[in-house]
């Protein structure tokens, strides 16, 4: 009878404590993974505006690439995703709370360079999968082949060539049409 009671207690804890805790954690992760949430800090508004006016947010195919698609590992890699998301979030909260004037003190160009260094090819390849069969652009097809199948010592990153796609400074941002 004692074993039955212990099993029942474990089941009770799992259902009434574990499930709500898991659900709240998942809900929080989903809600804080949107570009709207990312742009709620003043420091990130610049990055949001430059993203919103780029081809990653507004293009003829209707595909939208969110912040986490480039800046975080794939969600299927649960532990690395959670760790990276937590680290990014804590860094942004630290900047928001400790800088006297975060908008002026936050060095966008320096952080842009750090972000490009941290983006791995796998993050780009989540969306850009058909790079070896671009029939009307042979040069691009061959260039992508050297990235996907590099010779030893000649490894490249997607961002070595594709640097000015998203967070580019503009004189104004006409977001009303987007």
Written overview of the protein:
The chain has 178 residues and is mainly α. It has one domain (32-161): Orthogonal Bundle (Multiheme cytochrome fold), CATH 1.10.3820. It is 60% helix and 0% strand. It contains 10 helices and no strands. The radius of gyration is 21 Å and the shape is extended. The protein starts with a helix and ends in a 17-residue tail after the last helix.
Helices and strands, with pairings:
Blueprint: H1 2-31, H2 35-38, H3 42-52, H4 67-71, H5 78-98, H6 102-105, H7 108-118, H8 121-125, H9 138-148, H10 158-161
Beta content: under 5%
Rg to the nearest angstrom? 21 Å
Elements, N to C (H/E): HHHHHHHHHH
Please write the CATH class name: Mainly Alpha
Classify the fold: give the CATH topology: Multiheme cytochrome fold
The termini sit apart by: 65 Å
Q: Structural class, from helix and strand content?
A: mainly alpha
Discrete helix count: 10
Helix content: 55-70%
In round numbers, the mean pLDDT is 82
The number of domains? 1
> Tell me, what's the shape?
extended
């Amino acid at each position: 009878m004692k074993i039955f009671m212990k099993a029942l207690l474990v089941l009770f804890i799992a259902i009434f404590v574990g499930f709500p805790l898991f659900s709240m954690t998942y809900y929080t992760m989903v809600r804080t993974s949107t570009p709207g949430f990312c742009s709620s800090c003043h420091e990130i508004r610049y990055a949001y505006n430059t993203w919103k006016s780029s081809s990653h947010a507004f293009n003829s195919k209707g595909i939208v690439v969110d912040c986490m698609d480039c800046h975080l590992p794939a969600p299927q890699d649960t532990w690395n995703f959670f760790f990276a998301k937590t680290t990014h979030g804590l860094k942004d909260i630290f900047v928001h709370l400790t800088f006297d004037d975060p908008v002026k003190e936050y060095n966008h160009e320096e952080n842009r360079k750090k972000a490009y260094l941290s983006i791995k090819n796998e993050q780009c390849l989540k969306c850009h999968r058909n790079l070896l069969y671009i029939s009307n652009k042979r040069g691009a097809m061959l260039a992508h082949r050297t990235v996907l199948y590099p010779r030893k010592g000649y490894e490249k990153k997607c961002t070595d060539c594709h640097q000015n796609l998203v967070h580019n400074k503009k004189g104004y941002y006409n977001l009303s049409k987007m």
